[in-house]
Specification:
This protein is α+β, with helices and mostly antiparallel strands. The protein has 20 helices and 22 strands. The protein folds into four domains: 171 residues, Lysozyme-like; 163 residues, Lysozyme; 166 residues, endopeptidase fold (from Nostoc punctiforme) (Alpha-Beta Complex), CATH 3.90.1720; 64 residues, SH3 type barrels, CATH 2.30.30. Bound molecules: zinc ion (ZN).
Length: 619
């Protein structure tokens, strides 16, 4: 089958960063998150320079427009996997810059359309999400099947972010439905309760919030979208079904002003009922239609900013439930008894649908959490003797007595290989912050330390990270443990990285001028030995940079001509060495843009010089 490109594209800026024609037919789609709410034009300029060493087939800008950077026939450089990119259409989607890297709805809707289009043009009737790396990569798709893959399977990245990752199944099912194929993955959901949960959780992306809302809906309507307020069934002489049918047919015309509560949220006030009715009519749906009511509820909630914000951020069902009760439903009775009752309903849904699967925030290990603990300690002064240890400033001195060492000595005697109070305490301070933030076991795991270790010493601490491959000499991240000294075998001081900017790393340290304090260093400060990087939950180990999805050099290229000149530098303005590569496969160690080559210049591993990548196909 010949390759084509999407008619949905409204902006094209072809990137030189690709491998030429793909070696595998298209049977995968890989959606990515840009890590930035960028436009298609910005993406185009990001992928334009050869120095970027990255590209994608399509991009979806923040406004939902589609850009093309690498034609479908060519292999883009997007997913950190040659094998994947040879067979995948890669799509960069504008997203937030932090977890969960959410997309705007318009971007997601476009992604659905684009996937439908890609499948149709490539002869596919189904888009599959198999949900698991090993299963997916081992799967051989049938001729009419397209398979979804994600970047995080091929590199240590969060991409496409947890927002999109949670929707991969939804994407597959929506696209497959539009393709008219039969779904194999997720059976159609018929259960009202499950439908409501999936909708709310999908929108709110927070299980506590979804459960808090759901408990309230249960209290209002027992989750029956056709529910007419009981007292009005008698007043109007109609059952739920009769009322719904009468409103739909128009034979009952007082829906808006009859003051009868109706539907999932028991909408009562005339202007809200009017809006609901208009919404149903515009959608061509029954007033009792579940999906219509959910869509309406979500639309209405956009006007309740503070309730919505609580739903998205609450860390308990109760907080979310209370917010809905007092800010959205606002029934006459908002007593504590009612609050407890509704939160109780919500908790049941939480336990049923989110319980074991959802990481409670309290159990999540994030860099932010340990930094918060460290910030609290700023100003704590080392003591002159083993007294007043819990006071921040009393008994200040320089005898190395601290509450940090005391806690290890007394409460956690198995943490170190002996008692530590009275000794240099910079490393104990770091350990103490982790212990306080995450508890004993998780703290040890994050610090890469065994029990009864010599982890109170900086050099030993450094080595524990190094042994696990979690020690880095540059590119610090918030939450890293920074080490100072004269060599990797002689670390003399340590602290926690609070933040990083282009020039400096900002830290919080213990035992710096006999206290806990913030410090700043140039990133190039020669005293910095490097950074131990705890494997925090959820967050990508590397902070994602806006579209820096380049594949690292070295990489392989195939040269198919006999007379490709080798030059002394990256450009035709450098002289020829007089040698040719000849046909074959070569390793490129570095890429630079330069005169006379669109795809850039590659430095040969042999040391012979530079070649134009225009004449080399990336493998
Ligand atoms: Zn990616």
């Amino acid at each position: 089958m010949g390759y084509t490109n999407s008619p949905l594209v409204v902006y094209t800026k072809l990137s030189p960063n690709h491998s030429g024609q793909r070696t595998h037919s298209i049977d995968r789609i890989t959606p990515h998150c840009v890590v930035g709410q960028r436009s298609v034009e910005t993406l185009g300029s990001i992928f334009a320079p050869t120095s970027r060493q990255a590209s994608c087939n399509y991009g979806i800008g923040v406004d939902g427009r589609v850009g093309m950077y690498v034609e479908e026939k060519n292999r883009s450089w997007c997913s950190s996997s040659n094998a994947n990119d040879q067979r995948a259409i890669t799509i960069e989607c504008a997203s937030d810059t932090t977890e969960p890297y959410a997309f705007k709805d318009v971007v997601y809707q476009t992604l659905i359309k684009l996937c439908v289009d890609i499948c149709q043009r490539n002869g596919k009737k189904k888009l599959l999400w198999l949900g698991d790396k090993d299963t997916t990569l081992a799967y051989t798709p049938k001729a009419d099947e397209m398979v979804l893959t994600v970047h995080r399977w091929f590199a240590n990245k969060s991409c496409p972010g947890s927002w999109m990752y949670a929707r991969m199944g939804d994407l597959a099912s929506k696209v497959t439905t539009q393709l008219g194929g039969t779904q194999v993955e997720t059976p159609a959901v018929t259960d009202t309760e499950k439908t409501i949960w999936d909708f709310l959780f999908g929108k709110i992306s927070n299980a506590y919030g979804a459960a808090g809302m759901m408990g309230n809906l249960y209290a209002e309507s027992a989750l029956k979208p056709g529910n007419l307020q009981n007292s009005y069934e008698k007043i109007l002489g109609m059952t739920d079904a009769e009322y719904t049918a009468a409103v739909d047919s128009g034979s009952y015309s007082n829906f808006v002003k009859d003051s009868a509560g109706y539907g999932l949220a028991q909408w009562t006030y005339w202007s809200r009922k009017q809006a609901l009715l208009q919404f149903a009519q515009a959608a061509g749906k029954s007033i009792g239609d579940l999906q219509m009511q959910l869509d309406f509820l979500w639309k209405e909630l956009q006007g309740y900013t503070s309730v919505l914000n609580t739903l998205k951020t609450s860390t308990t069902v109760k907080a979310a439930s209370d917010a809905v009760l007092t800010g959205y439903e606002r029934p006459a009775d908002q007593s504590d008894t009612v609050k407890e009752k509704r939160a109780g309903y919500g908790q049941k849904y939480f336990d049923k649908y989110a319980g074991a699967k959802t990481d409670k925030p309290a159990d999540t290990c994030t860099a932010a959490k340990v930094i918060a603990v460290a910030v609290e300690q700023i100003g704590y002064k080392e003591k002159a003797s083993n007294a007043s240890l819990d006071s921040k400033t009393a008994n200040a001195g320089s005898a190395n007595y601290t509450k940090y060492a005391r806690d290890f000595d007394q409460k956690y005697p198995n943490w170190y290989n002996g008692k530590k109070n009275g000794y240099a305490w910079c490393d104990m301070f770091v350990d103490w912050c982790f212990l306080t933030a995450f508890g004993y076991k998780k703290a040890l795991a994050l610090l890469c330390q065994p029990e009864r270790s010599a982890g109170a010493g900086c050099t030993y601490s450094l080595r524990y990270y190094k042994a696990k491959g979690q020690f880095h000499t540059n590119n610090p991240q918030p939450g890293d443990q920074i080490f100072f000294g004269t060599s990797l075998d002689n670390s003399t001081h340590t602290g926690i990285v609070e933040s990083v900017d282009k020039k400096q790393v900002h830290t919080i340290e213990g035992n710096t001028s006999n206290q806990v304090a913030r410090r700043n260093y140039s990133l190039t400060n020669s005293r910095i030995l490097g950074y131990g990087r705890p494997a925090y939950d959820g967050a990508p180990v590397e902070t994602p940079q806006p579209v820096t999805e380049s594949e690292a050099v070295p990489f392989l290229v195939r040269v198919s001509i006999t007379d490709l000149n080798i030059r002394k530098g990256p450009g035709t303005n450098y002289s020829r060495t007089g040698q040719y590569t000849g046909k074959g496969v070569f390793t490129i160690m570095e890429v630079k843009s330069g005169q006379g080559s669109t795809a850039g210049w590659g430095r040969l591993k042999s040391g012979a010089g530079w070649i134009s990548l225009d004449y080399a196909a990336r493998l």
